[in-house]
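User: Quick sanity check before I run a bigger batch. Here is a single chain. Can you write out its predicted 3D structure?
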Amino acid sequence: MENALNFRTQKGRDDYYKAYEKTLMLWDAAYSEKYITTSFGESHCLICGDTSNPPLVLLHAASCGSTIWYPNVKALSENYAVYAIDLITDPSKSTLLKPIKGKEQCAKWLDETVNGLGISDFYICGLSIDGWNAANYASQYPRKVRKLMLLSPVQTFAKMYFSFFFKIMKMGFKPTRKSVEEYLGWGSQKEAPLPDSVIDQFTISAMNINPNGVFPKMLNKKAFADVKVPVLVLFGENEFAFNAEKATATAKAVIDDLEIETVRHTSHLISVSASAYVNDRILSFLER
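Assistant: Done. Predicted structure follows.
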């Protein structure tokens, strides 16, 4: 395999791939895998559903990989062609061969990926850091986005809490099941334990981060000036990555066609901790 800039070691990459495959066993929908060549490397994509249906692009949270959509993919792929893309700057199944610099290159990488998938206009849903990526893409390629969905988007409408960096650092130095569940917003929820493969995959990714990407800078009103499509924003009731009240106020100020909601009894990664509700909310938004 080619030397991936998004992993510290080849062993880390090999271990991650094994954990990824185990988590894929949780998917309860048929899928195929595809690699797309971009000017930054190879983008890995999981494809579900009938590709003749309207395309829906899913972008995962940091260190989670596209497999994190396992509670959502069955419902979302029934009437949509789902394209779950692995973030190329993350330790993931995408292979970064050239460092990405600036938000323009972030959007360019994603545009080259969707072009390679053969989809010219689509719905897009981003989670956490990839909420920023989805919003950033829509701001630069607004004519290609039919509707935009942002789940707990960091650095998009409110700055990330400094304390959140300590959670991230804790993952890198000494990840445990407890610390991973707390970081993912799972520890405070009355949910079944996260599957071991999800914990393993996240842990391996967090311990193998080899920074060659872009730390997302806050998007401003100008960034959303050309975003004329409907936008859905969901926050968790117990957001710990940023101030949800401030983010709500900003989103309302910069987006005209907006649906925004705080989801009760959830924290940051609401797609996994409130999957049934989030599925229904996304589908109702897509179909309106």
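The first strand starts at residue 31 and ends at 38.

User: Great, the batch can go ahead then.
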